[in-house]
Design goal:
This protein is of the alpha/beta class. The chain has a domain of 385 residues. Strands 2, 3, 4, 6, 7, 9, 13, 14, 15 and 16 form a ten-stranded mixed beta sheet that branches. Strands 1-8 form a two-stranded antiparallel ribbon. The longest helix has 31 residues. It is globular, with a radius of gyration of 30 Å. Keywords: Membrane, Transmembrane, Transmembrane helix.
Amino acid sequence: MAGRLLSNLGLRSRARSPVYQDLPDFGVRDSQEHTPAQKGLVSLLAYRFMKSARWSILVLVVVIGLAYLSTGHISSAATVFPAWGMKSEAIDSSKLHKLNVPVYKDPAGGNRRLRIFMPADTPHINLCKSILSAVGLGYPLPMLLNWKGEFNRPEWHFAGSHIAKLESLLAVIEALLAGADDGADVSEDDLAILVDAYDIWFQLPPSVLIQRFHDLNKQADDRVREQWRSLVPQGVADFPVPPPRQSIIVTTAKDCEPGSESGSNPHYEHWPQSPMPADMYGNDTDKLLNIWDPARKYRRIRPRCVNSGMIMGTMGALRDSLQRAKQKIEAVALSGRQLWSDQALYAEVIGDQELWREWMRSLASTWDGSAASHIPGNMSSEVRSVANAALQGARFEYGIGLDYNFTTIPATCSSEEDGYFVKLNDARDVAKQSTKAGVPGDPRVSGIPHELIKSVSHSDVLKEVAWGYVPLYTDFFFGVTPVGIHHNAYVDGLKSWRLKHWWDLTWFYPRLRELVTAHLEALERDDEPRPLVELDEGGHKAAYFAPLADRRAKKVTVFEPADKSRPARFEPIHWDGVCQKGSTPWYDELFDDDEGPLQVHDKSRHR
C-alpha cells in the first residue's frame, strides 16, 4: 500500500529535466544540508505535497485577483499594493522649506521660571508625601490639576481621568501663557514638569533636575545631528530641513505598553533603539525572561518606550505637543470611540514624530544639493501617510525625547530589584548592593553626582547636606542616582508597601519638617529671590526661579479652568485640604515627630 501511495504522489524515481537546484554551484553555501529524502517517509510526503501545492495556491491567488479587477471591486493592483501606483517624486528645496517644522532660536540666556504640576482629585497621605518631598528640597510649590474632575469625560468612565491628565496640563499652560501679555512672570521658555501625584518622591534638589534636563537635550541633539549629517553625501550643500532639537523629555518604560488596544497607536517598531550599552544587563540584555511575572520578565530590556510618570519641557514646546494630542482626542470623540491611556496617547504623538523623522532621513540620504527623492515604494504605509500629510502642511516634529539614562524620575516597574538606598561614599555597601541586584562586572556607581558637586545651592538649609553620606535611592545597573523615585512597581503589592515602608529610608525623612519650614519661610524672608540654578547657555547666563506666586501664597494652588462666567483661577488650598484623609492626623504620619501641625512662622520684612 505504501508503494502505491508513493507511486500516486510521484515519489518513485523517474527521469526529469534539470532545474536550477541541480546546477553545480547551487547550495554550496550549506553543503551539510540534508535533503528531504533523508528525513523519512512523513517528511517526504509533506515535502512533495507543499512543492506541488504552491503553484496551485499562486494560480488561485492570481485568478481571484483578476476576478476582482474585472468586477470593479478593485480598480487596480495599486489598490491592493498602494506603493505600486506611486511614482517617485523630486522634492526641491522650496518644498522642503515649506514643511511645517519648529523655528529654533539661538540660546540667549535670561531669567526663567520652573513650575510643577500634579494631576490630583482627592486628598491623600501619598499626595502629601509627593508634594512635601518636593517642597523640602526647594522645588516650587506644585499646582494641582483636575482637582474637581473638571476635565474628566463622564462618558469615558475611568478612562476620562487618564486623558484629563494631558488636557488639564494644556489648559493651565495656555492660561498661564495668556497672562504673559499682562506682565505675568511667564514665558514660553519657562520649564514645566508634570509628575504623577500619588507615587513619586523627589530626593535631589531642582538644580540637579534642571541641569540634567539640559544635558539630556544636548546629548539627544548631538546624536540626531550626527545621524542627519552622515546621511548627506560629502561635498553636497546642507539639507534644507535642520536636525530636530529636543525640548521635551519623557520618562521611559521597558515594556512598550499599552499598544493599539488603548485606542492609540505609538508605532513603537519605528522608534530608535536605546543608546545605552548593548550589554548593560549582560548576555540577556534586551531578552524577555522566561517567567510568568508580567513585569519582571522585562527586567533585562533597555528602556526605549514611554512611561508618562514625568513629562518635562519648555512651556511653548509642551503647549504645541499637547495641542496635537488634543486634536487626536477630539477626532476619536467625534467617531464615538474612547481613549483610555494618556501614556499611549502621548506616545502616539511621539510615534508620529518618529515616522516623520524616518521620512526626513530617507530624503536626506537622496539629497543632491537641489532636490531629494520621495520614493513611496521604499516606505511603510505609516511613513507614507505621515509624509503625505506633511506635504499638505501638517506638523509632526515636536522636539520630544526620552530619558534613556534613568536620570530624572524613572519608573521602578520592571526594575523592582535594580535599585536601593545607599550612601554613595560607602564603596563597600555600593558593591554589596550592586552584586545583590545582579549587576555584571564591577560596580557602576561612582560617587556623588557631578551636578551636586558643581552646583551652588540656592538654599541655605541644603548647603549643610553631605550628599555622599546620606541614603539615596540609586539604580545599580545605570549607575545613577535619579532625581526622584516613581513607585509604580505594582507586582506582589510592592507599590503600596514601598509607599508606606520606604518613606523612613529617605535621607530627608528625619529632617523633613525643618526642611519644609525653612523653604516656606524663605519665600517671604528674602528681599531678592534666589535662583534655583544658574547655567551657561551658549555663552549666556540662564537663571531659573520659582514663580512669584509662591512668595505670595506659600501654599499649594489648585487650577480652576475658565468657564462661561469667569476666567481661569489659581486658588490656594490649605495643607489639610491636600493631605488629610482618614482619622490619623497627616502630620503625625508624615513627620512622625510628635510636634503637631505644620507651623510656618511669618518672618517677612514689612516692606
